[in-house]
Design goal:
The chain has six helices and eight strands. It is of the alpha+beta class and 177 residues long. The protein has a single domain (6-174), classed as Aminopeptidase (3-Layer(aba) Sandwich), CATH 3.40.630.30. The protein has a five-stranded antiparallel beta sheet, sandwiched between helices. The chain has a three-stranded antiparallel beta sheet with strand order 6-8-7. A hairpin with a 2-residue loop joins strand 7 (149-156) and strand 8 (159-167). Helix 1 (21-28) crosses helix 3 (45-62).
């Protein structure tokens, strides 16, 4: 599987490699990062490895997935952003997760818009959604900023989520090429 590399003004979105395991494990061990993800608690290095393997497998099985996000200039690990569609989900999600030391720099917005554009341009998607923990105000603000709108709240795989959505026309109106 040839995972595309996307570049923005400040960021590079690229495939995960084995060399990223340590940085990814540190991110997943951070309670501030994991508060609104999965079980809401940090995970150990072995569980983080399994998540990374799932990310790589998602690309292989579906032709899209999460990218590792790094700063273009420094190469520093920033987080992960991309497209997901796990069993039981109501659609293809654009998801983001940025390391706390990089919060409030606009990186999540920049990377999310790049991933969304790729999904609409290359995959010809009609719609993207975001599944957001009801208490995650920062992600709700980001969803609105990228142009998504609140659709509803529903149980997704045993967890209540606020679902935000954007269609192709709305995206291109908000983010012309």
């Amino acid at each position: 599987m040839n995972i595309p590399v996307l570049e923005t003004e400040r960021l590079r979105l690229r495939a995960f490699t084995q060399n990223d395991a340590e940085n990814f494990a540190a991110l997943n061990a951070n309670a501030d990062f994991t508060r609104f993800l999965g079980q809401g608690e940090p995970i150990d290095a072995a569980a983080s490895w399994r998540v990374m393997a799932t990310i790589v497998g998602h690309w292989q099985l579906l032709g899209y997935g999460l990218w590792l996000v790094e700063e273009k200039d420094s190469g520093r690990f920033v987080g992960r952003v991309g497209l997901l569609n796990l069993p039981g989900w109501p659609g293809i999600e654009v998801g983001w997760g940025i390391a706390p030391e990089f919060w409030s720099r606009g990186y999540a917005f920049e990377a999310a818009v790049a991933a969304m554009r790729w999904g609409f341009d290359e995959l010809k998607l009609d719609e993207l959604i975001s599944l957001i923990h009801p208490d995650n105000q920062a992600s709700k603000k980001l969803a609105l900023r990228v142009g998504e709108r609140f659709r509803n709240q529903q149980d997704v795989a045993g967890k209540w989520c606020d679902i935000y959505t954007i269609d192709r026309a709305e995206f291109y109106q908000r983010h012309p090429a």
